[in-house]
Design brief:
The protein has 88 residues and is an alpha+beta fold. It has a single domain, classed as Dna Ligase, domain 1, CATH 3.30.1490. It is built from two helices and four strands, in the order E-H-E-E-H-E. A four-stranded antiparallel beta sheet has the order 1-4-2-3, covered by helices on one side. The longest helix has 13 residues. It is globular and about 35 Å long. It starts with 6 loop residues before the first strand and ends in a 5-residue tail after the last strand.
């Protein structure tokens, strides 16, 4: 899915216990501007802007927040926003 700014969105449906591992895998792939976790009712639970400089200990509170969400949701969607680099 894309919007008028050329940003590209991808959604991944995951179970609560898979949430943290999938989020880590997606972030490690790189090229992600924003990660959003949405519950099965369509409500945004957390929206995390990601920059190249976000690494290591600075990211620990984010992992804790994602882990807490994973503990209370059964199913959710991870939406990632990427820049569309094809036109650049």
């Amino acid at each position: 899915m894309s919007d008028f700014n050329g940003d590209h969105y991808e959604d991944f449906k995951v179970r609560g216990e898979e949430l943290l591992a999938k989020a880590r895998d997606l972030i490690r792939e790189g090229n992600i501007r924003r990660l959003t976790i949405i519950n099965d009712e369509g409500r945004t639970l957390i929206e995390i802007p990601l920059t190249i400089g976000v690494i290591g200990a600075m990211f620990l509170p984010v992992w804790a927040a994602i882990g807490a969400i994973a503990a209370v949701v059964s199913d959710c969607t991870i939406r990632i926003e990427k820049n569309d680099e094809e036109g650049s």
